UniProtKB/TrEMBL annotation:
One of its GO terms (molecular function) is ATP binding. InterPro entries: HisE (IPR008179), PRib-ATP_PPHydrolase-like (IPR021130). Its EC number is 3.6.1.31. It holds the Pfam family PRA-PH. Transmembrane segments: none annotated. It catalyses: 1-(5-phospho-beta-D-ribosyl)-ATP + H2O = 1-(5-phospho-beta-D-ribosyl)-5'-AMP + diphosphate + H(+). This is Phosphoribosyl-ATP pyrophosphatase. Pathway: Amino-acid biosynthesis; L-histidine biosynthesis; L-histidine from 5-phospho-alpha-D-ribose 1-diphosphate: step 2/9. Belongs to the PRA-PH family. GO terms for cellular component: cytoplasm. It is an enzyme of class 3 (hydrolase).
Amino acid sequence: MPESLDPIARLMATLAERAETMPEGSYTTKLMRGGTEKIGKKILEEAGELVEAADEPGDEGRNHFIYEAGDLIYHTLVLLAHKRVDISEVAAELARREGTSGLVEKASRPPKD
Ligand SMILES: N=c1c2ncn([C@@H]3O[C@H](COP(=O)(O)OP(=O)(O)OP(=O)(O)O)[C@@H](O)[C@H]3O)c2ncn1[C@@H]1O[C@H](COP(=O)(O)O)[C@@H](O)[C@H]1O
């Protein structure tokens, strides 16, 4: 298979391989050993850090925001790999939603009682 030019697809492939082989000396393996609970805790922590960074001013703030987004995306991909879900499946779900406003989708749902 030719190596993908897309760093997210490459990372996903690495994480899927980590989930299969669980090598020693890997941070991903450490997270996966803790299961959904450990990975989920990191996702919540990283999401909080991302939101905090969103309001930091200037170029430094912007760079920190990008850095935190990287952390959140990495940890989210770790959970996907742990659950044997590929990012292409998430992309397909987003493609399915393409062009449908969240407001339209919300209005199409049966009312909650
Ligand atoms: N993209 C990442 C990546 N982003 C963030 N991190 C790690 O995620 C952690 C972020 O958590 P924190 O900032 O809270 O750091 P910490 O306090 O040390 O974390 P904890 O011990 O509390 O969990 C840091 O250890 C980062 O190094 C990542 N670790 C790995 N990758 C990619 O995953 C690949 C496989 O990594 P390993 O499985 O570890 O070999 C690497 O080659 C990279 O491409």
